[in-house]
Amino acid sequence: MKGKRRSAVLRKSILGALAAFASAFIFPAFSSCSNVAPNIDVIQDTVVFDFPDSKSTPSMRLSVFVQTAADERKVDSVRLVHDASGLEWVCNSPRKVGETEKTVWAGYTNFVPATGSSIPLGLYTFHYVDMAGEESQSQFRVSYPESILKRTPENILSEIRNYDELVAVYDADGILLYLGPRLENWSGDGDIKKSYGLAEKIRVCYRMEGGSVICMMPPKDL
Hints:
Number of helices: 2
Helix content: under 10%
Order of helices and strands: HEEEEEEEEEEHEEE
Distance between the termini: 55 Å
Largest sheet: 9 strands, mixed
Strand content: 35-45%
Radius of gyration: 18 Å
Structural class: mainly beta
Shape: globular
Oligomer: single chain
């Protein structure tokens, strides 16, 4: 019998950028499972605005990851529901991301709106199903400045407030090598290759709203 538990929601803004770039931190899934519904301890949602070039307005996606009391590597599927409209997204191949074996998060980085629309604001319910079919739920609220959707990289800084600037460094295959503030010894972009010899591209990212909103500027060759 499937058990359902609504867990308390805690936020950790430091995980916002990690979830947005989760493809660099994939871990293999194990096949073992439990008959106890996992408790969702922490949920991290991030709205990502992705600017493809210097003249275009952004696409957007929603990244949602959870940390549970059970082993996140046992996750089978996740489902996201916008409570007011009933819109639903299902991912049958969730990703596992984290910095160590003891810090693993499960979720998906690419919940996207229908063509020509935007991600709805408001309350969402996240459903986590493990390999035993046990389900847990948790709620969170999505909020972001809608005006960003009409901006380009040339004028985005006039629109956003109270942001942190991060630099994402990638190799030729698009694997994330570094994500964080510019290092003190980086007087110019050329210095990045001195620190990361495999670096080929960078993206400047502006993080706002406690990590729940990220604007990714266009890729730039090094």
